[in-house]
Design brief:
The protein is about 30% helix and about 35% strand. By secondary structure, it is of the alpha+beta class. It has a seven-stranded mixed sheet with strand order 1-2-3-4-5-7-6. Keywords: Transferase. InterPro entries: Acyl_CoA_acyltransferase (IPR016181), GNAT_dom (IPR000182).
């Protein structure tokens, strides 16, 4: 699908071969805050998840895609979650796993591709995301793609023995 191909990266469906990559992300405690994860995931559970990843977004209310470079390296993931067909909206989450792969434009390109796909192929009216106030890189990424901060959820995320505020951002397809 050409709509999910960019200059540096492309977005693709999860494959059984992604088990180790998915396991390394889901069990990286440094990023549990982003996904509200509390406990590690086993290979068994993730294998079951992968076996169901082919299901339609309208059925499972989620679409998880791998961000891959053209050499075939999985760089991260981008998700649509809480897909709401009736109200024509979904949440967006993105992660580029390795520090050396960040600030290279991969996340920006992945987000641009997902926005275009969401508005043209899924006919969504709006996308939203939740970002802790200390995550400046994500705030810049989403605001540079037209997302507007529409609210602040105080003491929303408990992480490292403290509460953090979280911003709600929204992009409406005009």
């Amino acid at each position: 699908m050409e709509t999910l191909k960019g200059k540096q990266i492309y977005l693709r469906a999860l494959e059984p071969e992604d088990l180790s990559f998915l396991h390394s992300i889901e069990n990286d405690e440094r990023i549990w805050e982003l996904s509200n994860t509390q406990v590690p995931y086993s290979h068994y559970i993730l294998k079951q998840y992968l076996s169901n990843s082919h299901k339609d977004i309208f059925e499972v209310k989620q679409l998880r895609l791998i961000i891959s470079n053209y050499q075939g390296k999985a760089l991260g993931m981008i998700d649509l979650f809480d897909f709401d067909f009736k109200n024509s909206r979904a949440g967006v989450g993105i992660l580029v796993q390795e520090l050396e792969d960040r600030q290279q434009g991969y996340g920006k390109e992945a987000l641009q591709l997902l926005i275009a796909y969401s508005f043209t192929h899924l006919n969504l009216h709006q996308l939203y995301c939740n970002i802790t106030e200390d995550n400046q890189a994500s705030i810049e990424l989403f605001t540079n793609q037209g997302f507007e901060m529409i609210g602040l959820k105080k003491d929303w995320i408990f992480s490292n023995k403290t509460y953090k505020n979280e911003y709600l951002f929204q992009l409406i397809n005009k």
